[in-house]
Design a protein that fits this description.
20 helices, Growth Hormone, Chain: A, alpha+beta, four-stranded antiparallel sheet, three-stranded antiparallel sheet, 523 residues, 3 domains, single chain, OB fold (Dihydrolipoamide Acetyltransferase, E2P)
């Protein structure tokens, strides 16, 4: 088999393996929710959050060591070993009977999330820089494993437990996943080829040297947004749909899958665009698109009554007749804005934008003596926003598409700037992104607790998008100024210089004409 055939075979194996590992990585979200909802275990909210997040934490923190090992030993043995170790802990999950045992198993099979760093470094070795972004984008399609887990894991649990009649049947699901990982490890080993990166003899200190470069941390922040945010929202959206829209767990899982699956597919597009146009313009578009999408999603579902424009007495006097549509003061009828009808119908219809209504309600009774400018009728403003679930889902999918494109473009940065340290740098970038997936739901929970508003998660990502966009812009401006410090001053000075030269030329031409005229007159 020629080199191109081997590279395509390795890419296929890496993508499939990462997809399966990613499905196992996010399995706990569905499993723990099922166990608690069916009262198999009585965990409090803190324990539930820790169990769901612990595999994500393990898979995030271990990405840097996994990247270092891949740079040193090669992707084939590291990736295979990680799959086998994860299979053992996944199987042990089926034997768990307490919070501690579930926690330890989650720590173990969370290693599946760290396979990303090994896959990025191993994939990069087989492709030239011109096509590396596309290859890494294809590899990132494995993110779809999260969507598949959200979509099919609830149905699998329902089948294994006979619709909840045999709750102990849940233990079969980790065993099925463990068997899939074991088979995957064997197939992966025999469908890939050994290849080590250049510089494998470098000491650890030299391998860690790129981590001192600020741009590595900047790339990590981008990945925290586009990948960490994706992982965090993939798990958070299930609770979001249940609480905000009253959806069932199964329907919420399906809606969360609609968010996850497209993001995995468009990573290929992100890598291809980064190869064709460079990662910088792609990330500009991604961050701008994320900012707009998150801002639109941050508007909460609301039904608010607030003070509006009231009616004040134009003069002192005595109130006569008081009706819903008017107030008589000193025999003069003052018209009120009546309360509009049709609110119930609007609430049942599909509203795209918030709807505002205002009216006035009498604040006085007949016979009341009032002074000038005293309040006769208080104003009421009713703001209603339906936050229609279909529109919300469409906007969230749009945000996921931007995030998927961005996730494909970020690692083009890594491969271009650090071609001999993709595992190490990619591992750190992956750690930062993965930590976003772990801390995201925790932060969302606190924001919800402090404000009581579910959409604060989108508001957080809106702010983070602006920070990333500003950091990128400032960095690019500094790089351009350092590379060509005269360019900016030339751009600013050139128009004034050209205008001065034009005016001087006109003055010189006018002076010549005057001299010629004087010469003719002298003759």
């Amino acid at each position: 088999m020629n080199e191109r055939g081997r590279s395509l075979m390795v890419l296929t194996a890496n993508t499939v393996a990462f997809g399966v590992c990613f499905a196992v990585w996010v399995m706990y979200g569905v499993l723990v929710t099922f166990l608690v909802d069916n009262k198999v275990f009585a965990f409090d909210k803190g324990q539930i959050g820790l169990l769901i997040g612990i595999p994500i934490l393990t898979g995030s923190v271990l990405r840097l060591p996994a990247g270092l090992l891949t740079d040193k030993l090669g992707g084939r043995p590291v990736f295979t070993g990680m799959i086998l170790i994860s299979a053992v802990f996944t199987y042990l999950t089926s034997l768990a009977d307490s919070f501690l045992s579930l926690l330890l198993c989650g720590l173990g099979f969370g290693l599946t999330g760290a396979t990303f760093a090994a896959g990025v470094a191993y994939t990069s070795l087989w492709f030239q820089p011109a096509s590396r972004g596309t290859a890494l984008g294809i590899f990132g399609v494995g993110n779809m494993g999260a969507g598949l887990a959200s979509l099919f894991a609830p149905q699998l649990l329902d089948v294994l437990t006979a619709g909840g009649k045999n709750l102990d049947g849940w233990r079969q699901m980790p065993r099925i996943y463990a068997a899939a990982l074991a088979v995957l490890a064997v197939l992966y080993w025999f469908s890939t080829f050994s290849k080590r990166p250049e510089g494998e003899s470098l000491p650890l200190s030299a391998r860690l040297q790129p981590l001192r470069v600020p741009r590595v941390w900047r790339f990590g922040l981008y990945y925290f947004l586009v990948f960490g945010g994706f992982v965090a929202l993939s798990s958070w959206l299930i609770a979001y749909y249940v609480n905000v829209y009253g959806a069932s767990v199964a329907r919420a899982g399906a809606m969360a899958a609609l968010f996850s699956l497209p993001a995995g597919l468009v990573r290929v597009l992100g890598g291809w665009l980064a190869d064709r146009y460079g990662p910088r313009p792609v990330m500009y578009g991604v961050l701008a698109g994320c900012s707009v999408s998150f801002l639109l999603l941050s508007v909460p579902r609301m039904d608010i009554y607030a003070p509006g424009e009231g009616l004040m007495a134009p003069e002192a006097g005595t109130v006569g007749e008081v009706r819903p549509e008017s107030i008589v003061l000193n025999s003069k009828s003052l018209q009120l804005s009546p309360k509009p009808d049709g609110q119930e119908q609007d609430a049942k219809g599909v509203l795209v934008w918030p709807r505002g209504r205002s009216w006035q309600e009498p604040a006085v009774v007949p016979g009341t003596h009032v002074a000038r400018k005293q309040l006769l009728a208080r104003g009421v403003t009713h703001i209603y926003f339906q936050a229609n679930m279909t529109i919300f889902a469409g906007l969230s999918i749009l945000a996921a598409l931007f995030m998927g494109v961005g996730a494909g473009a970020v690692f083009k940065y890594v491969a271009d700037y650090f071609p001999t340290s993709v595992g190490t740098v990619g591992g750190l970038v992956g750690v930062i992104g993965g930590l976003g997936g772990f801390f995201g739901p925790v932060l969302f929970g606190y924001l919800l607790k402090w404000t009581g508003i579910w959409t604060t998660c989108w508001l957080f990502f809106f702010g983070l998008s602006l920070v990333c966009l500003a950091w990128m812009y400032i960095t690019v401006q500094r790089l351009q100024a350092a590379a060509a410090p005269h360019v900016r001053s030339d751009i600013e000075i050139r128009p004034a210089r050209e205008e001065i030269e034009r005016v001087a030329s006109e003055i010189e031409e006018l002076a010549k004409r005057l001299r010629h005229r004087k010469a003719r007159e002298a003759k």
